[in-house]
Amino acid sequence: MKLIADLEQRLQGLDEASLTRRRRTVDTPCAPRLVIEGRPLLAFCSNDYLGLAAHPAVVAALREGASLYGAGSGASHLISGHGRAHALLEERLAATQAASIPDVRALTFSTGYMANLAILTALGADADAVLFCESLNHASLIDGARLARAQVSVYPHADVDALAAQLAASTVENKIVVTDSVFRMDGDLAPLAAMLSLCERHGAWLVVDDAHGFGALGERGHGALEHLGLRSPHLVYMGTLGKAAGVAGAFVAAHASVIEWLIQRARPYIYTTAAPPALAHALLTSMDIIEGAEGASRRAHLADLIARFRGDVKVAPWTLGLSTTAIQPVIIGANDAALRAGAGLYGRGLWVPAIRPPTVAPGTARLRVTLSAAHTVEDVAQLTAALNQLERE
């Protein structure tokens, strides 16, 4: 059959370019030490930055939530699926951004992908709007911009001067600047303070995807806005709940009028079944940990691991990314070389994924090391020793 033959030829092309992606099946809970298809491995590849995904208190809360609310919600939020646990979680999440956004409300979503689609398609619903998008934005922001009716203008990575010129040249009233906070493949932080100043000057929204910051950044784990001490009604904040928070889902925090607009007009919110309320119940316990003494201790430990990794790893002629976050990229270059490096670590009992285009730009294939508060100092020492040996070989 020609249709299948065409697909098989294209798949062969991906394989020849070292771009084929392969799944591995994990047999154990999310943690640094995993069993992968029967083999024990030390993993540096999850986004479980605080080590809460298998935290006993969070697991117990999920079990309690299922006993209280059942396994599923049964309907969309606007029909009958909005449970008490959802409402309590939204109040709790809104409070995390109250110091940053006046008159704040929060709205929960099943995934961060859906939340970003909702924000951009609802705020950018008119053809006379413009989305000013960072060039390294996450795929969900790229897809949200494509689905919106607004025009799209892309500015170079972290280039505040280029963004300023684009905003100054625009004559539309509805301007929306869109950026990741912590960039998922590089680990660097967007210049949010300078960007917010521009947005206030030009009357623009600043949409911040803080997927990799919420829980991990800020004195109380409230994310990038708290970390940088930002406050403005121009901010529209998205945080995910399946990374540092350890469970699943996402939320948008913004001025109450923005949230009401999303409720009324965001199709990814209106036309999908609400996430199980048991997840929301478990997330309330995650928030207790994130905001409490244990969360602060875990963030301090994570910061120490990051400093140790950066101080001990010697990977020249490869390049260690300029990151102070839990995402530590080792940039290798060629796709096949990155795959060989990943396989070399795997052979030593370490799981670090090789990231290739289109996730990153051609010629910048890399190992994406992600550190967690659940790692030990000895775990990180084992990784740095293996990377140093691998580079020499």
Oligomer: single chain
Radius of gyration from the CA trace?
A: 21 Å
- Name the average pLDDT: 97
Strand order of the largest sheet: 3-9-8-7-6-4-5
Question: What structural class should be given to the helix and strand makeup?
Answer: alpha/beta
CATH hierarchy, class of the largest domain:
Alpha Beta
Write the layout of secondary structure elements.
Blueprint: H1 2-16, E1 33-36, E2 39-43, H2 56-69, H3 77-81, H4 84-96, E3 104-109, H5 112-123, E4 130-134, H6 139-147, E5 151-155, H7 160-169, E6 175-180, H8 192-202, E7 204-209, H9 224-228, E8 235-240, E9 250-255, H10 256-265, H11 267-270, H12 277-291, H13 293-312, E10 319-320, E11 327-333, H14 335-347, E12 350-351, E13 354-355, E14 365-370, H15 377-392
Description:
This protein folds into two domains: 18-47 and 293-392, Aspartate Aminotransferase, domain 1, CATH 3.90.1150; 56-291, Type I PLP-dependent aspartate aminotransferase-like (Major domain) (Aspartate Aminotransferase, domain 2). It has helices at residues 2-16, 56-69, 77-81, 84-96, 112-123, 139-147, 160-169, 192-202, 224-228, 256-265, 267-270, 277-291, 293-312, 335-347, 377-392, and strands spanning 33-36, 39-43, 104-109, 130-134, 151-155, 175-180, 204-209, 235-240, 250-255, 319-320, 327-333, 350-351, 354-355, 365-370. Helix 12 crosses helix 13 and helix 13 (293-312) packs parallel to helix 15. It is of the alpha/beta class. The strands form three sheets. A seven-stranded mixed β-sheet has the order 3-9-8-7-6-4-5, with helices on both faces.
